[in-house]
Amino acid sequence: MREFEFVRSEGVEQAIELVTGDPDAAYLAGGTTLIDLMKDGVLRPRRVVDVTRLPLRDVIRTNRTVTVGALTTMEELAAEPVLAERAPVLREALLAGASTQLRNMATIGGNLLQRARCRYFRDPTVGACNKRSPGTGCAAVVESARMHAILGAGETCIALHASDLAVALVALDAVVHIQGTTGTRLVPLTEFYRVPGDSPERENVLEHGQLVTAVEIPLPAAGTASGYLKIRDRASYEFALVSVAAVLEIHDGIIHDARLGLGGVGTIPWRAHAAEKLLQGARPGTGMFRAAAAAAIRDTFTVPGTAFKVELARRTIERALNTVSGGTS
Questions:
Q1: CATH code for the domain in which residue 31 is found
Q2: Number of DSSP helices (H) and strands (E) in the chain, helices first
Q3: pLDDT, tens digit (0-9, with 9 covering 90-100), for 204-251
Q4: How many CA atoms lie within 13 A of 261 on its CB side?
Q5: Is 280 among the domain residues?
Q6: Which residue in 75, 104, 63, 89 sits closest to 219, CA to CA?
């Protein structure tokens, strides 16, 4: 049993000061990631600051955006009627991302900040991990690996970002509101995450003590089609082998706007910009969707256990685009 101090913060500013001033402090919200990692001995904070009672649970709706407080639960956001109408891709990702029990506990902010599901990161007894202990190596590259990344990966780390929600939010151009001791800043979710590179331990742009307070979600134009396709080993709650968040605005048989987020393949929630460029201004159809899928999955880094994801990802993208476009061919 490792002792730690538990503090319930009285306000946002106090919470930020408590964590910023202590390099061994961590925030606690729903706890669905932090508690697991503390039990496994991966994280060992000496101070845990409970933020669950902070006023960060509002949902503010306008005709163009939905701004969600970071402590809003996944289940609460999934129940928002505007998402079913304007952004079904987000609701589908939320429902596919966790069991009902977890959705009632897990917060939006916590989901975006969930740590890697790589077994070498989460179990210190099975192998080296640069993300857990920088400079020790990446066992996943040389040993058994399957639920790992092929995009944004390299010799230092192939750990996968497991969030379904983040994949949909990346495709919707969501913006993260971050508060620290010097004020608030807004960061597009596409710029929030960091690929491992030479610093696998740095997963996002947050500095210690900074707090995600809200996520701003632009709503697609009326008539825009969207959907989330998740391929997994079993139909019940499971992490994605490959997932695709597709958003298509089609008028008069032409794709005027296309956005693609990919999960199950990237060290970060992956935005397929090259595929989007091909799709915009094109007519939807099997040949175009196949070309877009090939453009999305290139410059891959694979190990024997993950090589199958290249073809699986391309086929999943093609299927998702075909479904969201209404089966146009």
A1: 3.30.43.10
A2: 13, 12
A3: 999 999 999 999 999 999 999 999 999 999 887 889 999 999 999 999
A4: 29
A5: yes
A6: 63
134 φψ region: left (φ > 0), alpha (ψ -120 to 50), beta (else): beta
- Furthest-apart CA pair in the chain: how many Å? 64
Pairing of strands 242-251, 225-231: antiparallel
Q: Specify the residue for token string 């996520």.
A: 215
Kindly report, residue by residue over 138-191, the tens digit of the pLDDT.
Answer: 999 999 999 999 999 999 999 999 999 999 999 999 999 999 999 999 999 999
Q: Which domain holds residue 22?
A: 1-52
Is 177 a member of any domain?
A: no
Q: Are strands 47-50 and 25-28 parallel, antiparallel or unpaired?
A: parallel
How many folded domains does the chain comprise? 2
Dump strand ranges (E) for the chain: 5-8, 25-28, 47-50, 59-61, 65-69, 175-180, 183-188, 211-218, 225-231, 242-251, 254-263, 270-271
